[in-house]
């Protein structure tokens, strides 16, 4: 077995389209766009062009089995994308093989784009609903368009919540329902995740302006392949969906205005323009809605200024130690204290910070007390924005920072126009379990590319060893916790971290 794998590997299992628009051809082009290696199983040779599908000629199971036996010796998958499956026999073969692969790799992700019928019209496959329901047992992410979702569930009139609930009864815990086949002005995609054991449902929706083009042949194949490629690289589904949405939008824009010919969807380079990325809908109503941007920090992302080093500490004692060290920003994060004690702590923290007018003091979470004692700023976690009175914070003139974990949360928080945005965890951290949410430098760079002029703070696992690498991304600030609080000499550690920052400011 080849153990020197440099890239993630995605297997695509689908039909061959001789016109080159859909199926395996679209899958391979898309997967390669994301710097992922692709291996292909062809389930059927079709006879079709951009206008009509005439016949589907299934590939014999023996041939698929031979391909499988060779590939498991050399190129085991990190993700599998399934498109057209031609027969029930192929489905039951797939179920058996996926079960074998998952027994050896619990992280294997299987994405299924249920091709109910070719968009060009014509014949359909011989697959039965009963076989499909058995296939659902090994599927991790289902990506139907609205028409396919309605046909598979028997639920119509665009009742997306009910459709997702129905899929969950089939064993599908993650469903993305694509909105490209509706006639709305905006194309809205819906993501649903059901968590065990209580089957709690989380929902997110993202939208992009509809593009006037008929160059969409193979769009569904490309969508599912992009999701699979990104999941193979460790992205959370919500982030994979967000990037995929931008990828699809960019491909549509490449042929904007070209209509009356059903051309192939154009797979382009990875999206980087902020305008390409979707609008993120709030997952639940806010207590209140700010009517204007939050107060600024006195700097923008123009490369001429920087917030510098941003220590996060948990006590008045640490504030007393660090405030004299000429910092530009610091955060007090106090947990598990009674309300009366918190009140006194935050009052004292603001008093201390007022003696250092060049240092911005942010209070974590306790926004009511921060307003009461006139702190410089408030920092909220992503989940806390729904419990805080954002309009009151904005009207008070106090600055607001928001934590984000990935591109989906970043775009959502950016829409609220806070004073700064924090992104993390960049590296594994001792202070919080961030399993599945480690961003790394590559993701940080990608997010900085689509950021507006709101300052961006990197946080999570940053220390003297890797601080230079983080600063080299052109981030506006790095937040640290244990790099200072657990250092042998906090003064020396702070001076060295500030010196590193000064090399990039």
Automatic annotation (TrEMBL):
GO terms for molecular function: ATP binding; hydroxymethylpyrimidine kinase activity; magnesium ion binding; phosphomethylpyrimidine kinase activity; thiamine-phosphate diphosphorylase activity. Binds 1 Mg(2+) ion per subunit. 4-amino-2-methyl-5-(diphosphooxymethyl)pyrimidine binds at residues 331-335, 364, 403, 432. Its cofactor is Mg(2+). It is an enzyme of class 2 (transferase). Residues 17-253 form the Pyridoxamine kinase/Phosphomethylpyrimidine kinase domain. Gene3D superfamilies: 3.40.1190.20, Aldolase class I (3.20.20.70). Mg(2+) binds at residues 365, 384. The keyword Ion transport does not apply. Pathway: Cofactor biosynthesis; thiamine diphosphate biosynthesis; thiamine phosphate from 4-amino-2-methyl-5-diphosphomethylpyrimidine and 4-methyl-5-(2-phosphoethyl)-thiazole: step 1/1. Residues 314-484 form the Thiamine phosphate synthase/TenI domain. The keyword Signal does not apply. One of its GO terms (biological process) is thiamine diphosphate biosynthetic process. Keywords: ATP-binding, Kinase, Magnesium, Metal-binding, Multifunctional enzyme, Nucleotide-binding, Thiamine biosynthesis, Transferase. It comes from the Bacteria. Transmembrane segments: none annotated. SUPFAM superfamilies: Ribokinase-like, Thiamin phosphate synthase. 2-[(2R,5Z)-2-carboxy-4-methylthiazol-5(2H)-ylidene]ethyl phosphate binds at residues 429-431, 461, 481-482. GO terms for cellular component: cytosol. It catalyses: 2-(2-carboxy-4-methylthiazol-5-yl)ethyl phosphate + 4-amino-2-methyl-5-(diphosphooxymethyl)pyrimidine + 2 H(+) = thiamine phosphate + CO2 + diphosphate; 4-methyl-5-(2-phosphooxyethyl)-thiazole + 4-amino-2-methyl-5-(diphosphooxymethyl)pyrimidine + H(+) = thiamine phosphate + diphosphate; 2-[(2R,5Z)-2-carboxy-4-methylthiazol-5(2H)-ylidene]ethyl phosphate + 4-amino-2-methyl-5-(diphosphooxymethyl)pyrimidine + 2 H(+) = thiamine phosphate + CO2 + diphosphate. Its EC number is 2.5.1.3. Condenses 4-methyl-5-(beta-hydroxyethyl)thiazole monophosphate (THZ-P) and 2-methyl-4-amino-5-hydroxymethyl pyrimidine pyrophosphate (HMP-PP) to form thiamine monophosphate (TMP). HAMAP family: TMP_synthase. Belongs to the thiamine-phosphate synthase family. This is Thiamine-phosphate synthase.
